[in-house]
Design brief:
Blueprint (H helix, E strand, L loop, with lengths): L7 H24 L6 H7 L4 H7 L8 H20 L10 H12 L7 H13 L3 H25 L5 H24 L16 H13 L1 H4 L4
Length: about 220
């Protein structure tokens, strides 16, 4: 057995955590974090309250696995973009990063349900500092992983340059989601009907282009 593959027990644990996370996201989006209890999340997730607290310390932490899936999809999109590059790499990694951002934020087969959940969580976090902290922590962890991913795109770059690109890309996505959540005109976001609304992807690509302008002046 491949040592890198998770065991059956670990896969079940991760599956349970994700089911609880989806239940929490649905409830937070529908009624807000303040009005939602851990017991409600456990019931909606099909587990006991005791099981819920074996996986999460607080009700807000329950959404972290769902946000982490999004971060992993973003990292995978960037890795795929790097793998598809020609042998003669362009000194400007911006286009590869921008395409990966757009691909990751395109509504999936679920019609954009997961994007809608993220927007709903950000709306709920306005009145729940603990939920806002979960969002911040997931972004920080993603940025740390992204620095290593960037090394595949910029093999000759120094660690600080890699960190700058990782920070710019992470900030672009974070700011796009937060601005999108603040936009009352983002119709359909609450119920996930986002197939015709590319707003968050457009915002993120534009944000990265602006944030990375100075980096392109100092190639690795």
């Amino acid at each position: 057995m491949d040592a890198e593959q998770p065991s059956l027990r670990e896969r079940r644990r991760l599956s349970t955590r994700l089911e609880i996370a989806r239940a929490a996201a649905e409830l937070f989006t529908a009624q807000g974090a303040t009005a939602t209890t851990a017991e409600e999340i456990a019931t909606a997730g099909g587990v006991s309250l005791r099981t819920f607290y074996r996986h999460f310390r607080t009700k807000e932490e329950a959404v972290a696995p769902l946000l982490e899936v999004g971060a992993e999809q973003w990292q995978a999109a960037l890795r795929a973009g790097i793998a598809g590059m020609d042998a003669g790499r362009d000194a400007d990694p911006g286009p590869v990063i921008a395409r990966a951002i757009a691909a990751m934020l395109a509504p999936a087969d679920d019609g954009g349900e997961q994007l809608g959940w993220v927007r709903g969580l950000l709306v709920a976090s306005r009145t729940d500092p603990a939920l806002a902290e979960v969002w911040s922590s997931v972004n920080s962890r993603s940025e740390a992983v992204l620095k290593d991913v960037m090394a595949g795109l910029l093999p000759a770059a120094d660690p600080f340059t890699l960190r700058l690109y990782a920070a710019a890309a992470t900030a672009a996505i974070r700011l796009a989601f937060e601005s999108w959540a603040d936009d009352d005109a983002a119709t359909g976001a609450a119920d996930g009907a986002l197939a015709d609304d590319p707003g968050v992807a457009r915002l993120a690509v534009d944000a990265f282009a602006r944030l990375s302008q100075g980096l392109r002046k100092h190639p690795a």
